[in-house]
Amino acid sequence: MTQMSIWTDLTGVEHTLRYVDAGGLRTRALQAGTGEPVVFLHGTSGHLEAFVRNLPAHAAAGYACHAIDMVGHGYTDGIDEPYRIPRYVEHVLAYLDAIGAERAHFVGESLGGWVAGRLAADHPERVGRLTLVAPGGTVANPEVMARIKTSTRLAVETDDIDLTRKRLHLLMHDPAKDVSEELVQVRHDIYHRPDFVRRVGNLLCLQEIENRREDLLTPEQMARITAPTLIVWGAQNPFGDIPEAHRMNESIPGSRLEIFGECGHWPQHEHSERFDKLNLAFLGEDA
């Protein structure tokens, strides 16, 4: 099938790709639209392009969209220490301060959902509504952790673009439909930035059992989340089974769970139209 550029999705949408000083870290951000801020947070070894399909609908609906690269991801500065959950949260809060936002809605996918969930538990005054997309961080599954660590290290430390392609294919239920060669090239270029290669161990620290256990999003923390919460899960999520989604749903008071069929780890990308309709209805419930 013919695949258009990932940037074709932004045709006709006024947007800016810029760098923001967030607590001293040069942070890449894709900004579009005006209104209440919605911050989009990607997954482990990911980058803001994970949300390019979603920004047009959210911007058109009257939201100021901010898709950012988190600490040491994409083209955002890394740090010479393990990238732990409190440090990710600190960076996201610094980004809110930098754009002058007292609070924002959050859409967090995988690692981004873990970070957003922890932020909502610890800083409820900064969070409006919370959308957790195939969120990680509630369990420590050695098999899944090993798969993430091994596939990412191979793709980063070996100059073979097919390894990057395989890493992206892991995420999708239907890679032929949802993994374009351009997306592969974007991630390959990021993976082979010298600073990214040098600090890949810092990025993968949460795939080590001792770090992960300390940083897990616990039932007690989830019980403290007061933000209205939507959880979106793929029925074929390779990094987490459906019972994990139900446990999270039960732990976050008043949360709602939606499971997408024929879907892997990127519901917002694999079923972007359905996700956008669902999430915009959720965000608009206060209006």
Automatic annotation (TrEMBL):
Keywords: Hydrolase. Residues 37-271 form the AB hydrolase-1 domain. It comes from the Bacteria. InterPro entries: AB_hydrolase_1 (IPR000073), AB_hydrolase_fold (IPR029058), AB_hydrolase_sf (IPR050266). GO terms for molecular function: hydrolase activity. Pfam families: Abhydrolase_1. PANTHER family: AB HYDROLASE SUPERFAMILY PROTEIN YCLE, MONOACYLGLYCEROL LIPASE. This is Alpha/beta fold hydrolase. It comes from Streptosporangium vulgare.
